[in-house]
UniProtKB/TrEMBL annotation:
<feature type="active site" description="Tele-AMP-histidine intermediate">
    <location>
        <position position="109"/>
    </location>
</feature>
<feature type="short sequence motif" description="Histidine triad motif">
    <location>
        <begin position="107"/>
        <end position="111"/>
    </location>
</feature>
<dbReference type="InterPro" id="IPR011146">
    <property type="entry name" value="HIT-like"/>
</dbReference>
<feature type="domain" description="HIT">
    <location>
        <begin position="5"/>
        <end position="124"/>
    </location>
</feature>
<dbReference type="Pfam" id="PF11969">
    <property type="entry name" value="DcpS_C"/>
</dbReference>
<dbReference type="InterPro" id="IPR001310">
    <property type="entry name" value="Histidine_triad_HIT"/>
</dbReference>
<protein>
    <submittedName>
        <fullName>HIT domain-containing protein</fullName>
    </submittedName>
</protein>
<dbReference type="GO" id="GO:0003824">
    <property type="term" value="F:catalytic activity"/>
</dbReference>
<dbReference type="InterPro" id="IPR036265">
    <property type="entry name" value="HIT-like_sf"/>
</dbReference>
Amino acid sequence: MDNCIFCKIIAKQIPASVVYEDDELLAFKDINPAAPVHLLVIPKQHVASLSDCTDAHAPVLGKMLALAPKLAAEHGIAVKTGPDGERSGGYKTLFNVGPDGGQEVYHLHLHVYGGPRPWRGLGT
Ligand code: 5GP
Ligand code: ZN
Protein backbone atom coordinates (compact mmCIF):
# COMPACT_ATOMS: atom_id res chain seq x y z
CA MET A 1 0.00 0.00 0.00
CA ASP A 2 1.49 3.27 -1.20
CA ASN A 3 0.79 5.49 1.76
CA CYS A 4 1.09 2.99 4.59
CA ILE A 5 3.86 3.76 7.07
CA PHE A 6 4.20 0.12 8.17
CA CYS A 7 4.41 -1.07 4.55
CA LYS A 8 7.24 1.44 4.16
CA ILE A 9 8.97 -0.08 7.20
CA ILE A 10 8.57 -3.55 5.62
CA ALA A 11 10.04 -2.21 2.38
CA LYS A 12 12.93 -0.62 4.36
CA GLN A 13 11.94 2.77 2.95
CA ILE A 14 11.82 4.19 6.45
CA PRO A 15 13.95 2.95 9.32
CA ALA A 16 12.75 0.93 12.27
CA SER A 17 14.40 -1.05 15.02
CA VAL A 18 13.55 -4.51 13.72
CA VAL A 19 13.65 -7.32 16.28
CA TYR A 20 12.22 -10.19 14.20
CA GLU A 21 11.61 -10.95 10.54
CA ASP A 22 10.44 -13.96 8.55
CA ASP A 23 8.54 -14.51 5.29
CA GLU A 24 5.23 -13.45 6.77
CA LEU A 25 5.89 -11.25 9.79
CA LEU A 26 7.96 -8.31 10.92
CA ALA A 27 8.39 -7.10 14.51
CA PHE A 28 9.96 -3.82 15.54
CA LYS A 29 10.18 -1.42 18.49
CA ASP A 30 7.35 1.08 18.89
CA ILE A 31 8.63 4.60 18.30
CA ASN A 32 6.69 5.91 21.32
CA PRO A 33 6.94 3.13 23.90
CA ALA A 34 4.19 2.84 26.50
CA ALA A 35 6.24 0.44 28.65
CA PRO A 36 9.91 -0.51 29.12
CA VAL A 37 9.54 -2.99 26.24
CA HIS A 38 7.04 -2.11 23.50
CA LEU A 39 7.08 -4.10 20.26
CA LEU A 40 4.75 -4.19 17.27
CA VAL A 41 4.15 -7.40 15.32
CA ILE A 42 2.80 -6.93 11.80
CA PRO A 43 1.99 -9.12 8.80
CA LYS A 44 4.03 -8.36 5.70
CA GLN A 45 0.88 -8.60 3.61
CA HIS A 46 -1.07 -5.38 4.10
CA VAL A 47 -4.39 -5.69 5.89
CA ALA A 48 -5.71 -2.50 7.42
CA SER A 49 -7.25 -3.68 10.65
CA LEU A 50 -8.45 -6.66 12.64
CA SER A 51 -11.88 -5.52 11.51
CA ASP A 52 -10.92 -6.48 7.93
CA CYS A 53 -9.74 -9.95 8.89
CA THR A 54 -11.67 -13.08 7.96
CA ASP A 55 -11.17 -16.80 8.52
CA ALA A 56 -8.49 -16.61 5.82
CA HIS A 57 -6.37 -14.51 8.18
CA ALA A 58 -6.56 -16.99 11.07
CA PRO A 59 -3.16 -18.57 10.30
CA VAL A 60 -1.28 -15.27 10.19
CA LEU A 61 -3.13 -13.99 13.26
CA GLY A 62 -2.12 -17.17 15.06
CA LYS A 63 1.49 -16.69 14.07
CA MET A 64 1.43 -13.10 15.29
CA LEU A 65 0.13 -14.15 18.71
CA ALA A 66 2.45 -17.15 18.93
CA LEU A 67 5.41 -14.85 18.31
CA ALA A 68 4.57 -12.74 21.37
CA PRO A 69 5.94 -15.09 24.07
CA LYS A 70 9.11 -15.68 22.04
CA LEU A 71 9.72 -11.95 21.70
CA ALA A 72 8.86 -11.47 25.37
CA ALA A 73 11.49 -14.03 26.35
CA GLU A 74 14.11 -12.42 24.10
CA HIS A 75 13.39 -8.99 25.57
CA GLY A 76 13.37 -9.99 29.23
CA ILE A 77 9.65 -9.60 29.97
CA ALA A 78 8.57 -13.25 29.97
CA VAL A 79 6.49 -14.63 32.81
CA LYS A 80 8.73 -16.51 35.21
CA THR A 81 7.69 -18.99 37.87
CA GLY A 82 9.68 -19.13 41.09
CA PRO A 83 10.43 -22.17 43.27
CA ASP A 84 7.21 -21.73 45.25
CA GLY A 85 5.13 -21.30 42.13
CA GLU A 86 4.91 -17.52 42.35
CA ARG A 87 4.85 -15.74 39.01
CA SER A 88 6.70 -12.57 38.03
CA GLY A 89 7.28 -10.62 34.85
CA GLY A 90 4.72 -10.29 32.12
CA TYR A 91 3.30 -8.10 29.40
CA LYS A 92 0.17 -7.21 27.50
CA THR A 93 -0.88 -8.10 23.97
CA LEU A 94 -3.30 -5.72 22.26
CA PHE A 95 -4.99 -5.01 18.95
CA ASN A 96 -6.51 -1.54 18.73
CA VAL A 97 -9.40 -1.79 16.27
CA GLY A 98 -10.93 1.22 14.54
CA PRO A 99 -11.41 4.80 15.78
CA ASP A 100 -13.20 3.94 19.01
CA GLY A 101 -10.62 1.22 19.62
CA GLY A 102 -7.82 3.77 19.43
CA GLN A 103 -6.31 2.50 16.17
CA GLU A 104 -4.14 5.18 14.56
CA VAL A 105 -2.10 3.20 12.02
CA TYR A 106 -4.20 1.27 9.51
CA HIS A 107 -1.90 -1.69 8.96
CA LEU A 108 -2.79 -4.56 11.29
CA HIS A 109 -0.45 -4.66 14.27
CA LEU A 110 -0.22 -6.49 17.57
CA HIS A 111 1.19 -4.50 20.47
CA VAL A 112 3.40 -6.55 22.82
CA TYR A 113 4.41 -4.36 25.75
CA GLY A 114 5.44 -4.76 29.34
CA GLY A 115 8.29 -4.96 31.77
CA PRO A 116 8.84 -3.80 35.33
CA ARG A 117 6.12 -1.43 36.51
CA PRO A 118 5.18 1.40 36.76
CA TRP A 119 4.45 2.27 33.13
CA ARG A 120 1.72 4.26 31.46
CA GLY A 121 0.29 1.56 29.21
CA LEU A 122 -1.90 2.27 26.20
CA GLY A 123 -5.24 3.97 25.79
CA THR A 124 -7.95 4.01 28.39
P1 5GP B 1 -2.30 2.10 17.19
O1 5GP B 1 -2.77 3.28 17.99
O2 5GP B 1 -2.64 2.27 15.73
O3 5GP B 1 -2.75 0.79 17.75
O4 5GP B 1 -0.75 2.06 17.36
C1 5GP B 1 0.16 2.55 16.43
C2 5GP B 1 1.51 2.50 17.09
O5 5GP B 1 2.49 2.69 16.08
C3 5GP B 1 1.73 3.59 18.14
O6 5GP B 1 2.06 2.96 19.38
C4 5GP B 1 2.88 4.42 17.57
O7 5GP B 1 3.76 4.86 18.57
C5 5GP B 1 3.53 3.47 16.59
N1 5GP B 1 4.13 4.12 15.45
C6 5GP B 1 3.56 5.06 14.64
N2 5GP B 1 4.40 5.41 13.66
C7 5GP B 1 5.54 4.69 13.84
C8 5GP B 1 6.78 4.62 13.14
O8 5GP B 1 7.00 5.31 12.14
N3 5GP B 1 7.71 3.77 13.61
C9 5GP B 1 7.48 2.99 14.70
N4 5GP B 1 8.48 2.18 15.09
N5 5GP B 1 6.33 3.03 15.41
C10 5GP B 1 5.37 3.87 14.97
ZN1 ZN C 1 0.54 -1.49 5.14
